[in-house]
Specification:
alpha+beta, hypothetical protein yedk fold, five-stranded antiparallel beta sheet, five-stranded mixed β-barrel, 7 helices, about 15% helix, about 25% strand, covalent protein-dna linkage
Amino acid sequence: MQIQEEMCGRTACTLAPEDISKSCEYKDKQGQRKCPQWRDGDCDKYQPSYNNSPRSNNPVLLSMKHFQKNADCSERVLAAMRWGLIPSWFTGTHPSKMQYNTSNCRSDTMSEKALYKGPFFKNQRCVVLADGFYEWRRQGAEKQPYFIYFPQVKSEESEARKDDSYVGGRRLLTMAGLFDCWEPPEGEDTLYSYTVITVDASKSINWIHDRMPAILDGDEEIRKWLDFGEVPAKEALKVIRPIESITCHPVSTVVNNARNNTPECVAPIILQKKEPALSASSKKMLAWLQNKSPKKEPSEEVKPVKLSQVALSHKKTSAELMHQWLKKEGEPSPKKPRR
């Protein structure tokens, strides 16, 4: 079996801060619908992007009790955290001195490894938010990127829903993560950073890669992962598993360069099917068939249809809906000017 590199290493998150808050609406213990607010100052640390890589600041959802000791564990707050966990015991002078890649952690070893068992058993659990993530499929010497996300809905369907989990017809991907807090030696602000938990890939995407993020499907799973007052660490592990309810489409290799930050990164493309090279024996057989096979009576020729020429179903796919949204949006949602 071919060993592939660890993932997930690139995401897109293009919603404006206020829209991220709306997309994370939930019911509190009194049954009231609430939109989590951004932690003080963190709204400005987050920048919408079509191409996020490790070391960037990204939106995460977590329990308010991590910041306010008198808060209930079920209350939620948004924060911008650095992608790539820096453990509290790190003795370096700067995060760049970290020698290990901590953008992902495997679910089967996170309760054992020194880097992650501290945050795990201290209930420092979070939900990493994104439009979706990128993964590359190896095809010989080449690698084809794909964008992977929750199935999208038509605008009229999203308007008919009772909640705001679909903002502008899009549902944010909710990935399970762990976070930690590091105090810089020079007395600078505390650094909050996170890692994305990964599991074996489900059948829906294991043809692209053998690993995938642990995706939380629905608010009940999010609640169980975040509410450490009711759900202890080992019990919370029950929601860490592969899921099938995701979709994907191929995208341009422009996303390969992390400096590229345009809608082209997530736009669907049509792959051109490559014909396999004929062996010497196959060429001889083809030549014989062309020269020796009996001639057929003239008839209307039926040309074979290539897979790449087959039209999409009349029913809009998630990729079409994504493409439609991209044409409408054009650029990442701008922040509202500070007053």
